[in-house]
Design goal:
By secondary structure, the protein is of the alpha+beta class. Helix content is 38%, strand content 24%.
């Protein structure tokens, strides 16, 4: 079962959250401070949420970070999945259960959609299994140094 971490427990799980964010976004060492400060600020001010899954021995096996965002054009509230990470295999059915909790949270917060983006194929699979539809593809081109 997924559990939403209360703000007071964010510091307890901070090292794991940092690790997941660094892995998911391939954060370069020179950007650690700004990326982690931004993330910690959002989590401690309840602007972002951390959801965790524990195993039977109460060890952390997966986490998800979400953030409520306001669409700049429509003004709609959306829940953005900014991180999805697992240290151990979690069955697809469990991820689907987890997203039901996240869906309920989004509904209670008045969100119109749950949005996510990832460059990790396994995340794409999980999102589709959980009922997400691909809406946009994002491309990037690095500008010379």
């Amino acid at each position: 079962m997924i559990i939403r971490l209360p703000v007071v427990q964010i510091p307890i799980f901070w090292e794991a959250i940092k690790f997941a964010i660094a892995k998911i976004y391939d954060v370069k060492a020179e950007n650690f401070r700004s990326v982690f400060n931004y993330s910690l600020h959002k989590l401690l001010n309840d602007k972002a949420q951390c959801w965790i899954r524990l195993d039977d021995e109460r060890r952390l096996i997966a986490l998800t970070v979400t953030e409520i965002q306001i669409d700049k054009i429509s003004g709609d509230k959306n829940l953005f999945v900014s991180a999805l990470y697992s240290w151990k295999h979690v069955d697809d059915s469990k991820w689907s259960e987890d997203f039901k909790f996240i869906m309920d949270f989004a509904k209670n917060e008045g969100c119109k959609q749950i949005l996510c983006e990832s460059d990790i194929p396994r995340c794409w699979e999980l999102y589709k299994i959980c009922g997400f539809k691909e809406g946009i593809r994002r491309f990037s081109l690095t500008v010379g140094e």
